[in-house]
Every structure is written in C-alpha cells, then in structure tokens.
Amino acid sequence: MNPLPTRHHPALVVLHWLLAALLLLALAMGTLVLKEMPNASPDKIGALRGHMVVGIAIGALMLVRLLVRWRTTGPAPALTGNRLLDGLGKIAHMGLYLLVFAMAASGMAMALQAGLPEIIFGGSGAPLPESFAAYPARLVHGVIATLLMIQVGVHVAGAVYHQVVLKDRLLSRMGFGKRQAH
Ligand code: HEM
Fold it and tell me: Ligand 1: residues whose CB is within 6 Å?
C-alpha cells in the first residue's frame, strides 16, 4: 500500500483557499455593508445581488469540497500529542462545516421568504420589503454569522498553534507541491 500523502489533493487546496476568501468576503459584506444599509437605499439591490451570488457560490463549493474530500486521499490526521485537543480539533472542523452550510441555508430561506429571487434577479421591479427583521430566517442568519466568525477565529488559532508552537509545518499540507515524501 502507498504511504499517505504529505499534502491534501491540489483540488482541495484550491477549494480551501477560495472558500476562505469567499467566506471572509460574505461575512464582511453582510456585517459592514448590508446590515448598515436601509432597504430603501438605491444601492441595496446591487449589494444584495453581490452577497447572494457569493453566498450561493459558497454553498455549492462546499458541496464540491465534501465530494473531493471523500474521493481523494488526505494526509494522516494532524495530531497534537494531547487527546483532548485532538478531539476538540475534530469537533471544531465539523462545527465549521455545519455553520457554513447553515449560513447558506438560512440565507436562501430568508431570500425565498422575502421573494428576493424575483426582485433581485427576475427584474420584477417590485420594491424590497421595508426590512428583513420580520423573517425568522434573518435572525438565524445573524446569530449563525456571529458563531461562524468565532469558529473561523478558532480555526485560525488552531492553525497558528500547530505552525508556531508545535512547529509541525501544518500549513504546508494546505499548499501545493510534491505529495509524497519520496
Ligand atoms: C455562507 C454564506 C454566507 C455568509 C457568510 C453570509 C453572511 C452574512 C452576514 C454576516 C450578514 C449580516 C448578519 C448580521 O450581522 O446580522 C448577512 C445578511 C444577509 N444575507 Fe448572508 N451570508 C451568506 C449566505 C447568504 C445567502 C446564500 C443569501 C441569499 C441567497 C444571503 C442573504 C442575506 C440577506 C438577505 C441578508 C440581510 C441583509 C439585511 O439585513 O439587510 N446570505 N449575511
């Protein structure tokens, strides 16, 4: 049997960094732009269009990512030497996946409840609802956004811990290059 590779598959590496960039963009757009902009603003439809396209792309790319992860062989689990930390790491990864999917799903649910597909992409010319606050999915989207930001912070802190404290070159597993040690 071949030894396990030292890095993830290049397709997974591309998806990882692309998703990281899109997630940061969607979180920033949502928090800094959409949340602050009243629905009556003439710029709101354009801002929502950009956010929805990025959000749906994130949901779709996450599905592709799961498929690629399942079909390719990855390196051995990155252990820390502490069983509790290793267990928490596994839970943190699962939590990150769940929160991203929940974010995309709650966004789509809110969009459907508010009739956004027609207004934003259908050219119906209908106005936006006065606010999204009346839709339960809006509350869920906002709460999960906060949890996701915390989870992204935990994810980055974990990577820094491996790289700087354990010095196990964890980041190179999510980079390009030869995948076999010899
Ligand atoms: C994983 C992907 C997504 C992320 C990270 C994300 C992030 C955010 C954030 C941070 C906010 C502001 C929440 C708050 O602070 O209360 C927001 C609002 C919103 N998002 Fe998303 N979102 C995503 C996917 C989607 C999708 C797929 C849609 C629709 C198809 C969508 C539609 C909206 C709408 C309509 C708002 C409310 C804007 C407002 O209150 O004016 N989002 N999103």
Answer: 23, 26-27, 30-31, 34-35, 48, 51-52, 55-56, 58, 100, 103-104, 107-108, 110-111, 132, 141-142, 145
